[in-house]
């Protein structure tokens, strides 16, 4: 008798298709792979940088949409500290709250963090990322620097001749476009200071929702940039169980949407009504985010999101200077001699350019939930006016992206009234 049961059990085990088993094991492995202490330490530091850089950029009144990847920016600061000496290097570490960390710990930790969070295979999201350091044509890059910046931060190096500015700009933009599969056609129309080094990060990120939107439930709606200016955008809709919080005192809503494999999630923070985002931005700190997240409760939420692509390019050079990176950007003071062997270089621009595509794609989900009691009376989260968003890593709590959507692409709609 027991023999038959053992045999039956063996047959059952054998019946599990090898692909299915492998997929499950792989998923578990990527989710459970623990990061080292130093990678976790740098994840934590990069989160402070996220809020600091967001506020610095938001202060600039000419900026509408914002899109920054703090972990990528952290790696660019790692690069500055790798190539710098004296205060040029130590200020980059200070921006990362890493003054007390050894260089090996810093570079190793950032490298591990970046390669883990940007691993598209393990994370089931699309994240194309290219980083390049451009130097004037007179420069010769030091071998050690080229080797280490490639190893830790996947940086490429290139000389650029700005005497022919048009073709120089063209080659930067073409490289960015290639790096992002054409999703980011342009990093910049112009470069003001052509006598220094340029850092360029070019990215394309596309979240793969843990539960997809129905691709047919997309229609045209208005997005109110301001009370009196509305643009037409395609809007996608879905109702599901999400972590949600209605902050009645601050008149805002927060919803967290997991991305595939639940390794990261997108968090939306939106005022109840159309208003400039300054009021919310004053509230936005690391501590406040933690408080809000602790109040989220899983419940039925009907979500409507613009199905748009957001392309934003920031020159973060002056914002980094505001945060304390004053030496590297100053031609008379910068010491980036580990890059070139000479004290002949300063940081003229830090282009941080990204495209983020909100689409319906994601994993299939269990349709049976729609019959359930808990799906009745969903809260409405209707994102038809400016909001703040973050993409947070579930494993390290680091912030992969932080930004705001103020003005989506779209044509002005006729005022109703
Ligand atoms: C990305 O993740 C996959 C699956 O977990 C793994 O096999 C691969 O080595 C990782 N790649 C990098 C660059 O870490
Ligand atoms: C995510 O996973 C699904 C199925 O597991 C697959 O079809 C899709 O191509 C993956 N997407 C990315 C960006 O890896
Ligand atoms: C984070 O991961 C845990 C464990 O896998 C999971 O239970 C949780 O739902 C995830 N959170 C999000 C927001 O995806």
TrEMBL record:
<comment type="similarity">
    <text>Belongs to the serpin family.</text>
</comment>
<feature type="domain" description="Serpin">
    <location>
        <begin position="51"/>
        <end position="408"/>
    </location>
</feature>
<keyword id="KW-0732">Signal</keyword>
<dbReference type="GO" id="GO:0005788">
    <property type="term" value="C:endoplasmic reticulum lumen"/>
</dbReference>
<dbReference type="InterPro" id="IPR023795">
    <property type="entry name" value="Serpin_CS"/>
</dbReference>
<dbReference type="GO" id="GO:0005615">
    <property type="term" value="C:extracellular space"/>
</dbReference>
<dbReference type="InterPro" id="IPR042178">
    <property type="entry name" value="Serpin_sf_1"/>
</dbReference>
<protein>
    <recommendedName>
        <fullName>Serpin H1</fullName>
    </recommendedName>
</protein>
<dbReference type="InterPro" id="IPR036186">
    <property type="entry name" value="Serpin_sf"/>
</dbReference>
<keyword id="KW-0325">Glycoprotein</keyword>
<dbReference type="InterPro" id="IPR023796">
    <property type="entry name" value="Serpin_dom"/>
</dbReference>
<feature type="signal peptide">
    <location>
        <begin position="1"/>
        <end position="15"/>
    </location>
</feature>
<dbReference type="InterPro" id="IPR042185">
    <property type="entry name" value="Serpin_sf_2"/>
</dbReference>
<dbReference type="InterPro" id="IPR033830">
    <property type="entry name" value="Serpin_H1_serpin_dom"/>
</dbReference>
<keyword id="KW-0256">Endoplasmic reticulum</keyword>
<keyword id="KW-0143">Chaperone</keyword>
<comment type="function">
    <text>Binds specifically to collagen. Could be involved as a chaperone in the biosynthetic pathway of collagen.</text>
</comment>
<dbReference type="GO" id="GO:0030199">
    <property type="term" value="P:collagen fibril organization"/>
</dbReference>
<dbReference type="InterPro" id="IPR000215">
    <property type="entry name" value="Serpin_fam"/>
</dbReference>
<dbReference type="GO" id="GO:0004867">
    <property type="term" value="F:serine-type endopeptidase inhibitor activity"/>
</dbReference>
<dbReference type="GO" id="GO:0005518">
    <property type="term" value="F:collagen binding"/>
</dbReference>
<dbReference type="Pfam" id="PF00079">
    <property type="entry name" value="Serpin"/>
</dbReference>
């Amino acid at each position: 008798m027991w023999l038959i049961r053992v045999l039956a059990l063996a047959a059952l085990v054998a019946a599990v298709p090898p692909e299915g088993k492998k997929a499950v094991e792989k998923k578990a492995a990527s989710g459970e792979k623990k990061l080292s202490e130093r990678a976790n330490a740098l994840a934590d530091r990069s989160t402070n940088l996220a809020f600091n850089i967001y506020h610095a950029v938001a202060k600039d009144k000419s900026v509408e949409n914002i899109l920054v990847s703090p972990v990528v920016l952290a790696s660019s600061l790692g690069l500055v500290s790798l190539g710098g000496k004296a205060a040029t290097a130590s200020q980059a570490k200070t921006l990362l709250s890493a003054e007390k960390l050894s260089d090996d710990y810093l570079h190793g930790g950032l490298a591990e963090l970046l390669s883990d969070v940007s691993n598209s295979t393990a994370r089931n999201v699309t994240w194309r990322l290219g980083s390049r350091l451009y130097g004037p044509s007179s420069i010769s890059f030091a071998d050690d620097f080229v080797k280490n910046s490639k190893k830790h931060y996947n940086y490429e190096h290139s000389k650029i001749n700005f005497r022919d500015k048009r073709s120089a700009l063209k080659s930067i933009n073409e490289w960015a476009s290639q790096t992002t599969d054409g999703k980011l056609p342009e990093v910049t129309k112009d470069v003001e200071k052509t006598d220094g080094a340029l850092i360029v990060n070019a990215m394309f990120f596309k979240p793969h929702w843990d539960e997809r939107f129905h691709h047919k439930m997309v229609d045209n709606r208005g997005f109110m940039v301001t009370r009196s200016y509305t643009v037409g955008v395609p809007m996608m809709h879905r109702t599901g169980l999400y972590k949600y919080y209605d902050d009645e005192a601050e008149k805002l809503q927060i919803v967290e949407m997991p991305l595939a494999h639940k390794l990261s999630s997108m968090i939306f923070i939106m005022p109840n009504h159309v208003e400039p985002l300054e009021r919310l931005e004053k509230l936005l700190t690391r501590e406040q985010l933690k408080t809000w997240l602790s109040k989220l409760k899983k419940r039925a939420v009907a979500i409507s999101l613009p199905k748009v692509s957001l392309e934003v390019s920031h020159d973060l050079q002056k914002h980094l200077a505001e945060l304390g990176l004053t030496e590297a950007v100053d031609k008379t003071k910068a010491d980036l001699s580990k890059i070139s062997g000479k004290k002949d270089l300063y940081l003229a621009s830090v282009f941080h350019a990204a495209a983020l595509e909100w689409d319906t794609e994601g994993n299939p989900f269990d349709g049976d939930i729609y019959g359930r009691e808990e799906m009745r009376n969903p809260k409405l989260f209707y994102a038809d006016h400016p909001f703040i968003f973050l993409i947070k890593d579930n494993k390290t709590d680091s912030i992969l992206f932080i930004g705001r959507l103020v003005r989506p692409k779209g044509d002005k709609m006729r005022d109703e009234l």
